[in-house]
Amino acid sequence: MEYDTLPSAVGSHLKLDEVFEVLELYRKHGPETVKERVLRDNIFDYNTTNARNRVLTSVRRSFLSFNSKVRKRSFLETISALDEKAKREVLFYRLCRRSYTSYRITLKVFVPAYNDGIEFLKKEKVIEFLKRKKETTKSVEKWTESTINTVGSKYLTTMKKFGYLSGRQKKKINYFSPELESVTYAIYELLDRDKTPKKIINSDRLKLFMLQKRDILNYLERIGSTGYIKFGRAGDLYEIHPMARFEELHNAIK
Predict the structure, then answer these.
(1) Given pLDDT bands bounded at 50, 70 and 90, which one contains residue 122?
(2) Does the model's pTM come out above 0.90?
């Protein structure tokens, strides 16, 4: 996996309410209608064609590049079915699928700070992480100091947009409990990738919801009790089975 500059695009060009509207247009009508509505009809009231194109391109790059039509359809349908908080959580999970930079900074900088109960996330911590990657990672070694600073700054802006941080100068970490439905989506997505129960329980992907192993087991129990999955446990042996097809998950969680 290669590091990317997608945090800069999300942090600079996207508003989440506009992202959700574009995704809903994709779900209902497809790409041609999306182009017409965003570029020709200017539904977001941007002054220039370049600004409208940036929104469209950023949404596609950040959230809509899939190697499976089933996964794409399930993502769009699930996002549409969820309430606002769960939408944001699934959207962030998807961003971290598309952006290796967002994924690794979250996993290696944000999650440890969150788990340690730290009050503020310092930009310097993100910059330090990226500078270490510049020394050891081919996809980052050509990044200038300006690029590193921009990506670091826009990562914090992105996290603020998703509600994980708040504040202007000092970025305060917002502590929360993820929605059952958003974690359910992630579990279905991991099952669709043929992950075993043990790999799901130990998955770094579920840490994107700020869950530790004991939390994940608790969520699996709760999700099982809703009927979204079948979850069983006997010692160190686990059973996780979906109770719906991935592309029909949205019908179950409405």
Answers:
(1) very high
(2) yes
Alpha helices in the chain (DSSP H): 6-13, 16-28, 31-35, 49-63, 69-81, 84-98, 100-105, 111-115, 123-136, 138-141, 145-161, 180-192, 197-201, 213-226, 249-253
How would DSSP label each residue in 79-142?
HHHS-HHHHHHHHHHHHHHH-HHHHHHIIIIIHHHHHTT-SEE-HHHHHHHHHHHHHH-HHHHT
Q: Determine the pLDDT at residue 254.
A: 81
Please, are residues 63 and 98 in contact by the beta-carbon 8 Å criterion?
yes
- Owner of token pair 């809703």: 226
Token digits of residue 94: 């998807």
> In angstroms, rounded to a whole number, what is the distance separating the alpha carbons of residues 43 and 202?
43
Amino acid type, 159: M
Chain centroid offset of residue 243 CA: 24
In a 3-state reduction of DSSP, which class is residue 183? helix
Give me the mean pLDDT over the 162-169 stretch. 95
Q: What is the mean pLDDT of residues 97-109?
A: 98
- Measured between its terminal Cα atoms, the distance across the chain in Å is 34
Give the position of tokens 């992907």: 205
Contact 211, 178 (CB under 8 A): yes
The tokens of 76 are what? 């769009």
- The whole-angstrom separation of Cα 143 and Cα 215 is 37
What are the phi and psi torsion angles at 178 (to 5°)?
-65, 155
